[in-house]
Design brief:
Number of strands: 6
Shape: globular
Strand order of the largest sheet: 1-2-3-4-5-6
Low-confidence stretches: none
Helix content: 25-40%
Length: 167
């Protein structure tokens, strides 16, 4: 599916299985920006399985003048409070030379249309606290920072340990 935008030469399209290597390059680029490249363990094969076989998430590629310049990866989760689906944005990334051109805003506009079409009650995402340009951008589109919520995580090692306790 191709999503129409009003910026000449800029489109968003659904990723296809053959895009897995490029998706991995984009993931490594955002991880580099976030100073977390050493945490990337994804591979072309793991992306193929999770995105196109198990369909765990959706990826839209940002294309400008026929060149891939960024991506969005999102999935749906569920809110017991709203009694409905939410859209969770895992990544939105544009290579640096394509920022400040209105593309990020267009990407969010498309995401909002997807949320409405799918009857999602919210769009949620996280942003690193030091990412002032990102936080300013999110504020400019009307997003609210939820400072009262604290993100928690169990990594694979901690999950395995917890799963094996009591055995």
């Amino acid at each position: 599916m191709e999503y129409i935008t009003n910026i000449n030469g800029f489109i968003l399209r659904d990723a296809i299985e053959e895009d897995c290597a490029e998706i991995l390059n984009l993931i490594k680029a955002i991880a580099t920006y976030e100073k977390m490249l050493d945490e990337v363990t994804a591979s072309v094969e793991s992306l193929r399985e999770s995105l196109f076989i198990k369909k765990r998430a959706q990826v839209l590629l940002a294309i400008y003048n026929n060149k891939i310049v960024g991506y969005m990866l999102y999935f749906f989760n569920y809110s017991t409070f709203t009694g409905g689906a939410n859209l969770y944005l895992e990544d939105l990334f544009l290579y640096e030379e394509y920022r400040h051109k209105g593309f990020g805003r267009k990407m969010f506009e498309v995401l909002a249309k997807i949320a409405i079409k799918e009857k999602a009650k919210r769009i949620d995402w996280v942003c690193l606290d030091w990412n002032t340009p990102g936080r300013n951008f999110y504020k400019s589109i009307g997003a609210q920072a939820l400072d009262m919520w604290v993100l928690h995580r169990l990594d694979e090692k901690q999950i395995a340990k917890l799963a094996n306790e009591g055995n």
